[in-house]
Amino acid sequence: MSWLVTGAGGMLGRDVVARLAAEGVPAVAVTRADLDITDPDAVRSCLAAHRPAVVVNCAAWTDVDGAEEREDAALAVNGTGARNVAEACKESGAVLLHISTDYVFAGDATLPYAEDAPTAPRSAYGRTKLAGERAVLELLPETGHVVRTAWLYGAGGPNFVRTMIRLEAARDTLDVVDDQLGQPTWSADLAGLLVRLGQAAVAGTVPAGVHHGTSRGETTWYGFTREIFRLLGADPDRVRPTDSGAFARPAPRPSYSVLGHEGWRGTGIEPVRDWREAIAEAFPALVEAERGTGATGR
C-alpha cells in the first residue's frame, strides 16, 4: 500500500514522510516545486502515475495575514487546490486525508468545538480552508477525511516555539498574549495520528468525515511561552502577560481554538497526547533546529 504526500517540503509534510519511512510504508513525497495543486491536470497526472492508496494533502497557503490581503490567491490553493486533489482521488479511488484548521470556527466558544459544530470563519484564511473542507466532504463522502489541527509547531519549519527559543536569547523580557486559548500540537504527533488514520481508513474501520488532530489539554500563548522558558532553563517570570490588542494583525485571531476529540471514540485510534508531554519530548530537536543551524525558515 503506497502513500502520496503533497506539500512534503513543509513542516508537517516532512514529519509525515519521516513517520511513513519509520514504519516501512512506501511513500512518494512531492513538494510545491514537484506539484502545483492549483493545476488540476498536474494533480490528475501525478496520481495516475503513482496510484497511491492514500493521499495526505499537506499542501496549503498558511500565511494567515497574507490571505487577508490576497484571498483569491489563498483560495486557489486552500479551496480550488483541495478540490483538485479530491477530484483526482475520486477518479483513482485513493483515500484522502486533508489538513484543515481551527480557523473555520468563529473562535468565541467557551467549550471545545465538536467535530460537527457550526463553522463560522472570521478571516480570509478560515474561509479558504472551509472551502477546501467542503470540497473534500462533497466529492469524497466515503473516502474523504478532513483533519483539523491548530497551534502546530515542529523542527522542520518556522513556528511559535522556534521564535520563542530565539527571542529568549535576545531579550530580557517578552510580552505574550494571554487572552487566546488553544492546544499546542507537535507536528510529529499529528503525523503519527495521520498514519494511523490512513491505515484505519483503508481497512474500513473508521468512517469518513471530520476529525480533530490537536493535543489534549489547553493553555494560552503566555502559558505556552512560560513552559518553553522553563524547558530552556530560563526564568518563566521573564514572560509577561498582555492582551491581543497589543499586537495588531490584518487577520483576526480566534480567542478560543480548543477542539474536542470525541469523534475518535470507537475508532480504535487514540487522540494526540497532552501538549506538555509532547513539548518536553520535542524540545531538544526544536532547540537544535533553531540554535544548532541558525535557521529560521524552511
TrEMBL record:
Highest taxon above the source species: Bacteria
Ranges where the RmlD-like substrate binding domain occurs: 1-283
One MF term in the entry's GO annotations: dTDP-4-dehydrorhamnose reductase activity
Record-listed E.C. numbers: 1.1.1.133
Protein source organism: Streptomyces kurssanovii
Name the record gives this protein: dTDP-4-dehydrorhamnose reductase
Entries under PANTHER family matching the protein: DTDP-4-DEHYDRORHAMNOSE REDUCTASE, METHIONINE ADENOSYLTRANSFERASE 2 SUBUNIT BETA
This protein's UniProt keywords: NADP, Oxidoreductase
Primary enzyme class: oxidoreductase
Pathway(s) where this gene product acts: Carbohydrate biosynthesis; dTDP-L-rhamnose biosynthesis
Family: Belongs to the dTDP-4-dehydrorhamnose reductase family.
Record's function text: Catalyzes the reduction of dTDP-6-deoxy-L-lyxo-4-hexulose to yield dTDP-L-rhamnose.
